[in-house]
């Protein structure tokens, strides 16, 4: 799906279903169903997964604050980033960094 490439190349920007659908010339409805049918996850879950993968890469490079990692991985707010990170990994980003890096 071209939408996947678009998300991977633009994860650090504000990504809405509408923005991505327009960029790949499909309706919001169609794109939403493609994610559910093909990837077995919602559009938002996929965007967050891409952002979480990037956050982990940034953590490995270390020397960055949680705020900077959040911003560079596409989250405008560090507290929201922490909430999503904990949902995906079961622990806070700070704890994750202390355990693995």
Describe this structure in words.
This protein is 73% helix and 0% strand. It is mainly alpha-helical and 101 residues long. Helix 2 (17-23) crosses helix 3 (28-39). The radius of gyration is 14 Å and the shape is elongated. 24% of the residues are buried.
Following the backbone from N to C, one meets helices and strands in this order, namely: HHHHHHH
Share in helix: over 70%
Distance between the ends: 34 Å
Quaternary organization:
single chain
Overall shape: it is elongated
Uncertain stretches: none
Overall pLDDT score: 94
* Number of beta strands: 0
* Tally of DSSP helical segments: 7
Q: Summarize this, please?
A:
The chain is mostly helical. 73% of the residues lie in helices and 0% in strands.
Give the helices and strands, then pairings:
Elements: H1 2-10, H2 17-23, H3 28-39, H4 43-61, H5 66-72, H6 78-89, H7 93-100
Helix pairs in contact: 2-3
List keywords for this structure.
7 helices; 101 residues; mainly alpha
């Amino acid at each position: 799906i071209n939408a996947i490439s678009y998300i991977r190349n633009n994860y650090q920007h504000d990504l809405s279903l509408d923005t991505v659908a327009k960029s790949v010339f499909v309706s919001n409805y169609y794109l939403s169903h493609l994610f559910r049918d093909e990837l077995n996850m919602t559009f938002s879950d996929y965007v967050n997964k891409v952002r979480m993968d990037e956050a982990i890469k940034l953590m490995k490079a270390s020397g960055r604050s949680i705020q900077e990692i959040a911003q560079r991985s596409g989250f405008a707010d560090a507290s929201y980033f922490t909430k999503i990170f904990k949902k995906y990994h079961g622990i806070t980003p700070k704890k994750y960094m202390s355990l693995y890096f």
